[in-house]
Input
Amino acid sequence: MTTIIAASIHAAIQTKTVEYKQGDTTLEGFVAWDDAIPGARPGVLVVHQWMGLTDYEKQRAEMLAQLGYVAFCADIYGKGIRPKNTAEAGAQAGKYKSDRQLLRARVNAGLDALRQQPLVDVKRVAAIGYCFGGTTVLELARSGADIAGVVSFHGGLDAPDPNDGKNIKCKVLICHGADDPFSSPQDITALENEMRSGGVDWQLVKYGGAVHSFTQPNAGNDNSKGAAYNEKADKRSWAAMKEFFAEIFK
Amino acid sequence: MTTIIAASIHAAIQTKTVEYKQGDTTLEGFVAWDDAIPGARPGVLVVHQWMGLTDYEKQRAEMLAQLGYVAFCADIYGKGIRPKNTAEAGAQAGKYKSDRQLLRARVNAGLDALRQQPLVDVKRVAAIGYCFGGTTVLELARSGADIAGVVSFHGGLDAPDPNDGKNIKCKVLICHGADDPFSSPQDITALENEMRSGGVDWQLVKYGGAVHSFTQPNAGNDNSKGAAYNEKADKRSWAAMKEFFAEIFK
Output
């Protein structure tokens, strides 16, 4: 494994890129931690949106580091595969959404890489994801990952296999825009039923007035496009995540 | 107005019963506050379940007082009207659920009584309600009450008038058991659409594995009865309320 030192944003927050593997594929993640805090601490995997690993996820990782966690941004697509436009993003996201086993392998590789970070308390690990990454952390849960919890932020919600809930061992928090047009009411109901029949410890929060991408400042503010930033829903969902972590990392 | 000094549970928490009126009807509420805190503070109206004002709501008021609020338990049914069994409770709750104007008058009378409490900062007021009281605080919001927010805990969710959302000025947080059998998916969808079309700032949290009465320890633990205590959902919804108050009482 090769690591490259990148810039640190805050005095205490350290960051670096981290190469790791899934099978023969090289992936390039990113880790952030606060070196002013001594000792092992919980680790949080961060899974990117359909555009691949960008500065957005890295900023979230730094925010998590400021909260005292080791945050590791997974790279699902592979080193150098960073879509330049929505067509490329759609092709990449579609590839993994239609091959959930590959998606699970990729996200679990990221989880392994997180666990290998020296400051991570491997007994206290969770995963969060945005958009495509929300779908991905739900797949991580369905893969039976032995982690404390997952949080989906405006993830694409569906239930490809209604029996998958039975494999979920961790707690699940889903933060969803009530006006998100990219998950149908039927798909959301199917997901709820999957969680219900699987006996999962799950929560779903719907934020009124929020559409897809509500945590993404670059998404603009035009709800009619189906994706837009919503400051209230962004802050509320981040607060909900913090409360969830406070519970699961006790 | 006559007041009677009742017992205080904690050294600093003071409580008393408070008589007040709605029209010609005498109502008997209950107020709790921390007298170790100086000066005006936000006020929270607490609306009772279908059994009427009981020790349960009074305990919640004391918990709110411990958080630094003045908490006032409304009495919707009237002084001395305290159902002894579910048949009586059903008759009382049914009376007000089928006469929403009367219900609004009663809950607004409680809001006025809260505002008259000397330590309340009348610019920072909210209402919470359980079960029947959840329905009631939604009606309080629909009545156009000039308050900061309402929180429903396992309230009966419906939308008798789909246009009512347009009258709502305050923020709305709905904490709901995902397996609560007393609100149909159709009624919940109708409520969501009412909020949506009214441009309301609303949030709905569904707690997996929770049925009706999930905050009520007396409800037992048999989900198959449709009403049962759920400690996780109780704690999570209380935390969500605290976060909501932190936002709206800024």
Notes: Residues 1-5 of chain B have pLDDT under 50 and may be disordered. DSSP finds six helices and nine strands in chain B.
